[in-house]
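JOB MANIFEST
job_type = single_chain_structure
chain_count = 1
residues = 151
[input]
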Amino acid sequence: RLFNTVGPRQVSRYGMVLPTFVRQALSDKPITVYGTGDQSRCFSAVQDVVAAWVALIDQDDSIGKVYNIGSNQEITIGALAELVKKKTGSASEIQQIPYEQAYEKGFEDMLRRVPDVRRLESTIGFHPKTSIETIVDQVIEFERDRMIVPA
């Protein structure tokens, strides 16, 4: 089970919050945070996720077991928006949008989503190598390069 896998070349459809925030910040548009921004997530670098999968494939005792693949570095969505704003040097305002305005009636969000990676750690000694700060830098670099239009 994957938990918020992110990285360069990720599209922003389906609620992919990091590339959405970065694109908004680089365009100096409001960075839109749905709800209070207090909901927390653990973002996993795609390269760390792939490394975990490859290591699990090589472990015979992993066959038939369920593994949570993710980071245990927790960050709130509000703090992620602030980090993106800071790292891009953006003039964007961070705009909170109530769930009632963003989603259909009855929408519920998980306040906290943190993977239990103990089985992954004990099976392959997995520990994420890429910090959220580095992930944000990688996404910013990719999105900046994408925004450059050749003359």
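[summary]
Residues 32 and 95 are 5 Å apart (CA to CA).
The first strand starts at residue 5 and ends at 6.
exit_status = 0
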